[in-house]
Amino acid sequence: MVAAKENKFLTVAPFECAWSDDLKFREAGRGCVAFDAFAHNDVTVVFRENVGTQHYHYKKDNSPHYIVIIGSNRNRRLKIQVDGKSVVDEEASDLCRCSLEFQSYWISIYDGLISIGKGRYPFQNLVFKWQDPKPNCNVQYVGLSSWDKHVGYRNVSVFPVTHNHILLWKQVDCREVKGDESGDEKVVEEGTGYDYEQWGLGNFLESWQLSDTVFLVGDEEMDVPAHKVILQASGNFPLRSSDGDVIQLRGVSYPILHALLQYIYTGRTQILESELAPLRDLSSKFEVMSLVRQCEESIDHFNLSKTAFDSCRKVKLLCPISHPLSGFMFPSAFPVDVGKLVKLYSTGEYSDIKIYLSDHSLTFQSHKVILSLWSVAFAKMFTNGMSESHSSTIYLTDVSPEAFKAMMNFMYSGELNMEDTVNFGTELIHLLFLADRFGVVPLHQECCKMLLECLSEVIFFFSQSSRVNDTSRCHYHVSLLFQYICYNMVSV
After folding, report:
1. Does this model's pTM top 0.90?
2. Which of 52, 75, 262, 277 is within CB 3.0–4.6 Å of 56 for a Cys-Cys bond?
3. pLDDT of the residue at 234
4. How many angstroms separate the CA atoms of 388 and 303, rounded?
5. φ and ψ of 216, to 5 deg
6. In the chain, what's the furthest Cα-to-Cα distance?
7. Environment class of residue 475 by beta-carbon count within 10 Å: exposed (0-12), middle (13-18) or buried (19+)?
8. Domain with residues 345-491, CATH architecture
9. N-terminal to C-terminal alpha carbon distance within the chain
């Protein structure tokens, strides 16, 4: 017997596949299957134009089909196959953790766009997507399969996918693999208006733009500009709230200070082995403790390995990423104490710009360098010679106070928190457009993710509720929700 089905629990034997009349997309080529899976490896989902058999095996299938394998190669990789040919073979250890307990997944197909995510609700927590350059728009039946070990499935459901989900997904930052006509794979980064490794805080390293303090280095008193809010959020520097602070560093060479500032402004630096100890001492003086630890670990490594001292050997030092999912983005990959940064924002210490929301008579104190590292629009406003470049005040109109407050909090904390927001849905739409207006791409992505989560919960509720017994009525309610969102977008 291929499957034992009790209380919505399904066990698929090795090298077999379970099919059901319920596991079918309502519209060919467009649908989503959500499920919980328990397996040691190879959770295999088949998408075909016709129903397969109990002893179906995808490696012997000559008909058009898609195969998604979660946990291939002993729970380490994600694979996608098209008509028996591998088109995706990616390291995905964070996705493929289905051996210890049931894990929730969803897989959707929309005109050849295969999207894979984790979580109870479909259409949220998007992890991976791949676009078939020659999409099969006729696949409709879903098979739950296995490889050489039993796979347990439960809570299996099929949902519709609408064009609105695809529009939102295009705004979500997710690695995408696209196939070209030759069948080769290309890995691209989608969803970012610019590369944060090329545009961001590093652009202000030792730049006079927006600087409000200066180091005088060595006996020659070389001028090196910096920004108070960045320094103080990263360590403990002798700064005052007034303008014109000067930090005298006699006996310190420029390469040592440069390495310290480069680490603070970019999250990484490179220095000669002979300069590790001076860099450690300077970092300790200003309490940049993550760099102190990096230097000490490198020194200990060379001492323990008894490697011959090489004064010309370069050592790379990299700040640990506090939130791996955020990637190399401020402030997660920088030696910044987020708590201190948020406090500097809330107290207005070292602030050099006041933002008036003219329609609401509200004022926000901020720091030009923080606004600029998140937003190219703000950076241009403050540095291209416009009136705002020489002013400590700017005026904004047609801005929701709640949305602007949420955007400012995001810029200083790197996180979006709207749990206590009144009129959450309306303010989320306002925030989405505000992020787009100022080019705050990561915030724009977070807003889109929240919209997807809201939609997925509504879809799940209507599909599971006893009050809605047919999928057409479920789809009708979801369509009403999309119309409501579109109406609010137009009226913002």
Report:
1. no
2. 52
3. 94
4. 53
5. -110, 110
6. 85
7. middle
8. 2-Layer Sandwich (3.30)
9. 57
